[in-house]
Specification:
The protein has one domain: Vaccinia Virus protein VP39 (Rossmann fold, 3-Layer(aba) Sandwich). With 186 residues, it is an alpha/beta fold. It has helices at residues 27-31, 41-57, 82-90, 149-159, and strands spanning 17-20, 23-26, 72-76, 95-100, 114-118, 132-138, 160-169. The protein is 23% helix and 22% strand. The chain contains 4 helices and 7 strands; from the N terminus they run ββααβαβββαβ. The strands form 2 sheets. Strands 5-4-3-6-7 form a 5-stranded parallel sheet. The chain has a two-stranded antiparallel sheet with strand order 1-2. Residues 73-164 form the Methyltransferase domain. It holds the Pfam family Methyltransf_25. Belongs to the methyltransferase superfamily. LaeA methyltransferase family.
Length: 186
């Protein structure tokens, strides 16, 4: 264990995958009921597409809160790392840390101000209080256990510096209509 930041070397079991219907899944995540999405090249392509769609939807903005010169940013559930990579490049004087349960999709080419760490966000964050200017959580509804959300939000706010910002992006999947013509069961 690194006494300075509380990290431990990666257990190689986190890299193990299992195959199901031609797709690769992280064995640790499936066995522990943490995450059920694939971790293969096809999923990397899917996550890259989702990132580009969101970037276009948000007019290229990566950070919405009024943060001019962030010093430290945390990306919760980095997936294929696209958001963290773009933020690290946009803010070269800022340290960007991405945390995810799976090491299988970590991009190889990354800026020096970006660090990817493997950790289970369904457990209490290991970061000390007041560490980050921005904590970003995007599309985590499928990766955070329903009983963990309250603690997850508490952890996010605990690790923010005074005046720091939490930025959450989720999709509401319930079908609905603005004009009231869609009814339950249709």
């Amino acid at each position: 264990m690194d006494t300075e930041d509380g990290t431990v070397p990666l257990d190689k079991s986190f890299e193990e995958t299992l195959e199901h219907h031609g797709r690769s899944y992280q064995k640790h995540a499936v066995t522990n009921g943490v995450y059920f999405g694939p971790v293969d090249e096809e999923e990397v392509a899917h996550l890259e597409l989702m990132h580009s769609v969101l970037c276009r939807l948000f007019d290229g903005r990566l950070i919405f809160p009024p943060v001019n010169e962030p010093k430290r940013i945390l990306d919760c559930g980095f997936g294929a790392g696209d958001w963290a990579l773009d933020v690290a490049r946009a803010y070269p004087d800022c340290e960007v840390i991405g945390v995810d349960i799976c090491p299988n999709m970590i991009p190889e080419d990354q800026p020096e101000n970006l660090v990817f760490q493997i950790d289970d966000l369904n457990a209490r964050f290991t970061f000390s209080p007041g560490q980050f200017d921005v904590v970003h959580s995007q599309m985590m509804s499928g990766g955070i256990n329903a009983s963990r959300w309250h603690g997850y939000i508490q952890d996010i706010f605990r690790v923010l510096r005074p005046g720091g910002w939490c930025q959450m992006v989720e999709i509401y999947f319930n079908a609905q209509s603005d004009n009231g013509t869609l009814h339950r069961g249709e």
